[in-house]
């Protein structure tokens, strides 16, 4: 009987230590951000120009999400992302080519892409220039080797 009395006596005090119901709602499961499709950056999309070749476009923004077999001259870049369990980002970039030359750029909800900060733009420009220098160096080395082999 003493145990029962002790439990009945301590129960109100222990229940006072429990969190409020509003605090319990803070204890939710972690949900990771979900990215589906092509993740594009506004900085790179702004570099697209009519008249670019398919190779140049692919080097700039990557492979398309969809190349429709019925429309070989149309590339679709589609993205659907859920961030922080509530922020949904959905955009679609459609590029149309004529004889492997970019002739039309259609953007839907591209405004949902965040702007890059000046630091990010600077870092991206440095990375691009480094890659270009690296490519030129490789081409020069290859040309030199080929000319040496040809001279022999």
From TrEMBL:
Pfam families: BamE (PF04355). It is found in: Cell outer membrane. Residues 37-105 form the Outer membrane protein assembly factor BamE domain. One of its GO terms (biological process) is Gram-negative-bacterium-type cell outer membrane assembly. Belongs to the BamE family. Part of the outer membrane protein assembly complex, which is involved in assembly and insertion of beta-barrel proteins into the outer membrane. This is Outer membrane protein assembly factor BamE. It comes from Ruthia magnifica subsp. Calyptogena magnifica. The gene is bamE.
